[in-house]
Design brief:
Blueprint lengths: L9 E10 L12 E10 L23 E3 L3 E4 L2 H12 L4 H15 L9 E8 L4 E7 L9 H11 L18 H12 L4 H14 L1 E2 L2 H7 L2 H11 L6 H7 L9 E2 L2 H13 L1 H5 L2 H13 L5 H5 L4 E3 L2 E5 L3 E5 L7 H10 L4 H4 L4 H21 L3 H4 L11 H6 L20 H4 L4 E8 L5 E9 L44 E7 L1 H6 L10 E9 L4 H14 L5 H6 L3 E4 L11 H4 L4 E4 L5 H9 L4 E3 L7 E6 L6 E5 L6 E4 L1
Parallel strand pairs: 17-18
Antiparallel strand pairs: 1-2, 3-20, 4-12, 4-21, 5-6, 5-13, 6-9, 7-8, 10-11, 11-14, 12-13, 14-15, 15-19, 16-17, 19-20
């Protein structure tokens, strides 16, 4: 949030009025008496942060949570409490994550809900395996690229898919994701997982400061979109969320959502995708002239996928989900940065930030041209982290100046050959058996498309805006296809070197990687950039878990995007802009500018961070949460 505006010292004329007491129906005009008084307003100094005790963790604004049995970190205190309550009743980390996610759909609809998609990474201690789940939905099968292009022509000068309205809506994958995760790892009935959200939706749930701040942007987005014709229907969203928008301290009720969740709890996933709820969504889109139909819901399936992992500094291994997400960009960046002694450069130095930004630009060039639904693109995600590839790409980096032209490093097939700023919530939960869940869920831009089906209490996502309109692009809009996705959960392993010594592992046997860190960060294209910064803070800059999230961040914006045309020399030549948070030293900003970097302070989209880490020495969990948001970390 921006700091409140401070008035400089000035002399103001203040009007004090007293109104006549005549009754409103007297027919006599109200009389106003105006008294002018001169008041001097002194310049105000905004409050600064207090000083922490000298524990060695100077950046963190709070202490990380240490919990011997279980831990959770979410973007709302009630969601964290809900997760812990489920764990204490015998639920698994997956049960707790589902319960927390359902609660967040109620209290944080600015970032997520059952109208959106879900991705998750789960460490299962029983099988000693890391599982990935892609719960993203597909475009309507009955529409065509020409249909979507017509919407783009009407409202976006033909350049991109409209951000609001039916053209951007894809099938919501979250409910299916909940049941897939629960079928594999749940311990409690899923109705028990959904009960807290159902109860609070009926009785009322508290809305805190930051969520209410973003919530109030809704009418400013959707009302003009409706008036222009881009958004086909607005009354349902207005009635559900904006009558009026909540302020901090509002107790928000959503009985329609309670009814929808109750039907899901009773009837399972098919109630949403094949039953009465699917029929109601079908009827709604037919009524407003949209594209989704019952058949799109009924045919939806999510997929279990293998996470893609890359080592960093030998003792760490970071794992992300493959495309259609952007997670591999973080792995590419880390592989490029291994050549640099970032520790010696120092956190927040010009050299360190320069190396990171240029690595981001190279990784995102590949992201723009090759990250797409692999069922259509035919691109093997492993090519992006093949041995030596990113090390060679890093050779293009010059710390003294930005690269003038950044191209993708691989030749990607076109659609013909291969059939071809987001708001999100991230949460993580770990249970006493060692299961760790990294889950991210989103409606994409703002609260979503602006469309709320009759009587259902949730908004449909606008994720389909992230398709390209270029027929040659691997990410081109096609029927029944998943769009490029920004949301990415992450997981990391670490070698427990002291533990290896205790277990007397032979010197010739490599110390194995152990599950270490479940983490993520919200914020569109900031997410892989944020993942990298968190890992660097922990590994290269020796920060604690809370400190690693509280430390000032940078964000680079610019270059080619997966929504651009496949051949676009203008975006390849765009060096972009680097936004710095205020905690980056002014000297660093000056030095970056001297090197030719376009820098701005302090508008970085820092995202929203949550993490749970295993302390190998004690076996306890350490949990941290984003100080820039409303959430908390907790455990027991």
């Amino acid at each position: 949030m921006k700091a409140p505006r401070i008035l400089a010292a000035a002399t103001l004329a203040v009007g004090l009025s007293a109104c006549a007491t005549s009754p409103p129906d007297s027919g006599e005009a109200e009389k106003e008496i105006v008294v002018t008084e001169t008041v001097t307003v002194q310049e105000q100094t905004p409050p600064g942060p207090g000083d922490r005790m000298p524990t060695g963790r100077s950046i963190g604004v709070r202490s990380a949570v240490v919990a011997p049995h279980a831990a959770a970190a979410t973007a709302h205190p009630l969601a964290t409490q809900t997760a812990l309550d489920v764990l204490k009743r015998g639920g698994s980390a997956v049960d707790a994550a589902i319960a927390a996610n359902a609660m967040l759909g109620l209290v944080e609809p600015t970032g997520n809900g059952i109208g959106g998609d879900l991705f998750a990474i789960v460490w299962d201690p029983e099988t000693q395996q890391l599982y990935g789940y892609n719960g993203s939905g597909r475009s309507p099968k009955g529409a065509t690229l020409e249909d979507i292009q017509a919407k783009a022509d009407a409202f976006m000068d033909g350049k991109e898919i409209p951000p609001f309205g039916t053209a951007s809506v894809t099938v919501p994958g979250t409910v299916d994701g909940w049941f897939a995760l629960h079928d594999k790892f749940g311990k409690l009935p899923i109705a028990d997982d959904l009960t807290p959200a159902i109860t609070y939706a009926r009785e009322g749930a508290p809305i805190p400061e930051v969520i209410s701040y973003y919530w109030n942007f809704g009418p400013k987005r959707y009302k003009p979109a409706f008036e222009s014709g881009m958004l086909e229907e607005y009354e349902n969203a207005k009635e559900t969320y904006f009558s009026p928008p909540p302020h901090e301290g509002t107790i928000f009720r959503n009985p329609d959502l309670a009814d929808t969740l109750s039907k899901i709890a009773e009837g399972g996933r098919d109630a949403f995708y094949k039953g009465d709820l699917a029929e109601r969504m079908d009827a709604y889109f037919k009524r407003i002239g949209g594209f989704l139909r019952y058949e799109d819901f009924a045919s939806h399936t999510g997929d279990w996928v293998d996470p893609v992992c890359a080592t960093y500094r030998a003792d760490y291994k970071v794992c992300e989900l493959p495309p259609n997400t952007q997670g591999i960009a973080a792995l590419q960046m880390l592989q490029m940065l291994e050549k640099y002694d970032l520790r010696s450069m120092g956190f927040g130095s010009a050299d360190s930030i320069m190396a990171q930004v240029e690595a981001k630009r190279l990784a995102f060039a590949d992201r723009a041209k090759g990250y797409a639904d692999p069922e259509f693109s035919g691109i093997d995600p492993e090519v992006f982290i093949a041995d030596g590839y990113n090390a060679r790409r890093a050779g293009l980096i010059d710390l003294s100046k930005p690269m003038p032209n950044v191209k993708a490093g691989l030749d990607f097939p076109t659609a013909d050959k291969a059939l071809e700023d987001g708001d999100t919530t991230y949460l993580t939960v770990a249970d006493e058996n060692g299961m760790m869940v990294s889950l991210i869920q989103s409606n994409y831009r703002g609260m979503g498309s602006g469309l709320v089906a009759d009587g259902m209490g949730f908004m449909f996502q606008d994720r389909g805006q992230l398709f390209s309109l270029d027929p040659a692009h691997p990410n081109v809009w096609e029927p029944g296809k998943r769009p490029f996705h920004t949301i990415i959960p992450a997981f990391a392993f670490k070698k427990d070197m002291p533990g290896c010594q205790v277990r007397a592992v032979p010197i010739e046997q490599a110390c194995p990687f152990e599950p270490w860190l479940s983490f993520g960060l919200m914020g569109g294209g900031m997410q892989p950039q944020g993942h990298v910064q968190v890992i660097l803070n922990l590994v290269d800059f020796d920060m604690g878990l809370q400190e690693a999230g509280d430390a000032a961040r940078w964000e680079h914006v610019g270059g080619c995007e997966p929504t651009d045309n496949l051949e676009d020399p203008a975006c390849e030549a765009d060096t972009g802009k680097v936004f710095l948070e205020s905690g980056i030293p002014p000297a660093t900003r000056a030095e970056l500018e001297a090197r030719g970097v376009d820098v701005e302070c302090c508008g970085a989209n820092a995202g929203g961070y949550q993490a749970v880490m295993r302390d190998f020495e004690t076996g306890a969990y350490i949990a941290a949460t984003e100080m820039r948001k409303d959430g908390v970390a907790d455990g027991y």
